[in-house]
């Protein structure tokens, strides 16, 4: 297959936004194969597709149990493209089954870490501030038209936060918490100095850190090492006043254990942007759990997110066309 005949698969929506830039990067070294929303492409149209972009417009109406129609159509196209060599995702994580399956087929998969780092980090810090000041209780009081007696929350200044994951998001979270006066211990695979943390511990040291932690923030990718990481045994090591913030993935936590810890008063408060089942069903007991704040997996969302992910894709497309090393190459698992 000649370079001129190879194709790059993008959605019609993505093509409208960055089509000019896409053709500029391709510079005659390939063509653009557009995928209309929800459409099915023929075998002939997919025969020369060698690269594809899972763009932000495909991530709307998040449902981990069943992809939305546009994402399902894109997945079908990717799985039916016999010459696919590279797939770029607008997400920072690569735990979607579509991406994991592609890697197992030998397709290079790259991601967009950092494109949403600022918004996710700001959301995590907002969660800490909201829980520290008792915002969930204010919301419930407002809904009930109830003027409650004031409480005396603990001062944030001088508290200890443990941040699991020190990638683009976790580093920003650590930096922001330190600016608020907290002491921050980062947790990653290996211990060692980090500019945004007061200390850094290896993951196997996590249980020993928790009895002195006021906050546990989950900012890590989902993989074999982090799946079900936070379980009843780990939660039991946290002080009863501690708060937990999850902007990682729902599967990093054993949700039943976390729910029981909050309900029983063994954990102070929780902010969660992510759950194992999304959307969270209306009958879920999480909606009524006191001292809990929930958002519908929106921490990454901001107006600039789409443009940043497209620029990261186009930069990697240039490298791919030049035969250079791709940035942010993912690993299976």
UniProtKB/TrEMBL annotation:
A Pfam family in this protein?
Answer: 2-Hacid_dh
- Judging by the UniProt lineage, the source's domain of life is Bacteria
- Where are its TM segments located? none
Ranges where the D-isomer specific 2-hydroxyacid dehydrogenase NAD-binding domain occurs: 126-299
InterPro entries according to UniProt: D-isomer_2_OHA_DH_cat_dom, D-isomer_DH_NAD-bd, NAD(P)-bd_dom_sf
What keywords are assigned to this protein?
NAD, Oxidoreductase
Q: Which CDD domains match?
A: 2-Hacid_dh_1 (cd05300)
Q: Which residues form the D-isomer specific 2-hydroxyacid dehydrogenase catalytic domain?
A: 78-329
The reply on keyword Oxidoreductase is yes
Task: Tell me the GO molecular function terms.
Answer: NAD binding; oxidoreductase activity, acting on the CH-OH group of donors, NAD or NADP as acceptor
Family indicated by similarity: Belongs to the D-isomer specific 2-hydroxyacid dehydrogenase family.
Q: What is this protein called?
A: D-2-hydroxyacid dehydrogenase
Q: Which organism is it from?
A: Ramlibacter agri
Its ancestry begins with: Bacteria, Pseudomonadati, Pseudomonadota, Betaproteobacteria, Burkholderiales
